[in-house]
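FYI - complex with nicotinamide-adenine-dinucleotide, inputs then prediction.
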Amino acid sequence: MNSDTIEISGNGFRYSALVGHGLMAKAGQLARKVASGNRCAIIGDETSMRLFGDRVRESFSSENFSPRLIRIPAGEKSKSLAQVEKICDEMIAAGLDRSSFVVGLGGGVIGDISGFVAAIFQRGIPHIQIPTTLLAMVDSSIGGKTGVNLDAGKNLIGVFHHPALIIADIEALESLPPQELRQGYAEIIKHAIIRDAEMFQTLSSRAKRPVRLGLEGSRHESLKVTHRNPSTCARGDGLVSLVRRNIAIKARIVSADAREVSGERALLNFGHTVGHAIERATDFKIPHGDCISIGMVAACAISMKRAGLASRERDHVVSLLKKFELPSQLPAGVDREKIAATVVHDKKFIGGKIRFVVTPRIGEAHVSNDVTMEDIREAIAAL
Ligand SMILES: NC(=O)c1ccc[n+]([C@@H]2O[C@H](COP(=O)([O-])OP(=O)(O)OC[C@H]3O[C@@H](n4cnc5c(N)ncnc54)[C@H](O)[C@@H]3O)[C@@H](O)[C@H]2O)c1
């Protein structure tokens, strides 16, 4: 086992994120350091359980834990209160109690619902995250936001409940389809724009070489194939440092502003005001990361107007998104006015202005109070 550790701490919480190869097989041993009780629920979806359930269960059993595997359907629809109730019933039937803990094995959907279950089961028990998508590794597993959806909207019910431990095993990404990898890369590019110009540069130069990047170091010979999609690159050791770097960026931000009070955590919403509106206006038919990608292009246009972003830097952003096969324009036929109307409906405008995250140059971002709905409408029209 070979891993890097990132410490995440703030007001009232402290935990580690481990990143490396082969960590799932050691999950039980790693959990021993943070869990006192013996019974646990390992919650995953059909896919994450099929791929990793046995490996993780064996690891917990070999450390004398009594794991109960709970499998739910894959997909956003599973993030519901009805599913929470079913999981809790199963946990009670399996004899879990206040001394037990929950392990979330899967992508962001599983991280969010398993974290929520951990937060409310018998008034709160520890949660261990084993993220298996790139998005979950670099984004959703960090920061303690847990929750489920209502018919009225996404993530409307939830609590902050920080995990006791995050175990990010890079080997999990070897089975992840390119479409899902791209979702993670959208957030990585966002992190680069708001906080890490050097990573932006590295990603730009890496993506210029379209083949085999990072597959060096993969233990799986079958993966050592020439691949034309840069978003499927970097599955090897390069990916360990990329994931570590992104966890560290998010960790620093949430450590400074865990409950989104000071405005620091709001920077993570770069590209999300327009991105969320695209998602809602198109009935969630476009994947989240793709919407954020288009939303970041709009945020760059607004940043040129309101924060002095150079047009050359906007072009660099567009070109990096394209290299990772992320969209920079709306698909034909999408109603731009509907997207603008959704922004108006979703966001609070005070005196005709909104709090909007802008970037004055790649690597920096701040919340601006100068952005008007007209700026947003103009940027959407240009997409
Ligand atoms: N809590 C937060 O701070 C936060 C932040 C961002 C996003 N989110 C939430 O995260 C969710 C999206 O997460 P996601 O993109 O990981 O989606 P997801 O959990 O739905 O996973 C995507 C798909 O990949 C499959 N999968 C998972 N691991 C796999 C693997 N290793 N190999 C092959 N397939 C695998 C899943 O079964 C699923 O079909 C949304 O619900 C979003 O609201 C939460």
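The longest strand covers residues 2-10. The domain at 2-176 is CATH 3.40.50.1970 (Rossmann fold).
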